[in-house]
Design brief:
The protein is mainly alpha-helical and 244 residues long. The chain has twelve helices and two strands. The protein has a two-stranded antiparallel sheet with strand order 1-2. A hairpin with a 3-residue loop joins strand 1 and strand 2. Helix 1 packs across helix 3, helix 7 packs parallel to helix 9 and helix 8 (144-156) runs antiparallel to helix 9. The radius of gyration is 19 Å and the shape is globular. The model has no long low-confidence stretch (mean pLDDT 91).
Length: 244
């Protein structure tokens, strides 16, 4: 029976885990960048999203899975390429990381060294990722930036990350939001905003720094003067939410 057939049966059975769960997960990781969108997205990712957060895997199994997700065959696979199929492996490996972090935040199992490894590899991936495609009509979702934003969102919520880490997240967001060869049109912006909100909700960064970060996106003098009162009123409402 093929991996796809196995996962279809598991889905039909309400994601009940088989006796060889971890062996099956290893097979899923080998195929996580499959060009079959149904296998990659609807079956592999969705199965992992059911099993990892709900304690199907033991801590030992999660610890064994982590270095696989982060290695050069997965998260860092041919990093820097554009418009090649390697993006699917990187992007869907990235999407496993929020699952691992959600499990950790509910019931801590990752050491500080593990968190550091995740953080450094995610930051490196985001910095070097150059494939900005969202949806591919032939092969389905690539969504490397959206999936990276999901990982940054979860990382920002981890108490193990300090002020320097949160500043790095905002710097990475700035870099990816100001690329000139891509207009994000597949929901990336909303997911990026979630990571920013998670940074703000930590209440670690000063309002002054946040204001300076916002100002980096453009010179306020370029804004139509008639719009300034509306912009100021809106920013004040945001400030009340995050700094009151």
């Amino acid at each position: 029976m093929s991996l796809k057939e196995k996962l279809i049966l598991i889905k039909e059975n309400g994601y009940q885990a088989p006796h060889d769960t971890f062996q099956l997960i290893q097979e899923m990781m080998v195929n996580i960048g499959s060009l079959d969108a149904q296998l990659r997205d609807d079956l592999i990712y969705t199965t992992l999203s059911n099993w990892i957060p709900d304690n199907t895997l033991t801590v030992r199994e999660l610890e064994q899975l982590l270095p696989v997700v982060l290695d050069k065959k997965h998260l860092l696979f041919r990093l820097g390429e554009t418009h090649t199929d390697s993006v699917f492996t990187r992007s869907f490996s990235m999407l496993v990381i929020p699952l691992l972090l959600m499990r950790h935040r509910e019931s801590p199992y990752l050491s500080s060294e593990h968190i550091h490894q995740i953080k450094e590899n995610v930051f490196y991936n985001v910095q070097k990722e150059r494939d900005y495609r969202g949806y591919d009509e032939e092969k389905g979702w690539a969504h490397a930036i959206a999936h990276a934003a999901d990982a940054l969102d979860e990382l920002a919520q981890c108490s193990e990350l300090d002020k320097t880490d949160l500043l790095t997240i905002l710097d990475l967001v700035y870099e990816k939001m100001t690329v000139t060869d891509r207009v994000y049109s597949d929901g990336e912006d909303e997911r990026i905003v979630k990571s920013i909100i998670s940074v703000l909700n930590r209440k670690i960064l000063s309002q002054t720094y946040i204001e300076q970060w916002i100002q980096r996106f453009g010179d306020v003098e370029k804004v139509d003067a008639d719009l300034c009162p509306t912009i100021e009123h809106t920013l004040y409402k945001i400030e009340q939410v995050y700094y009151s």
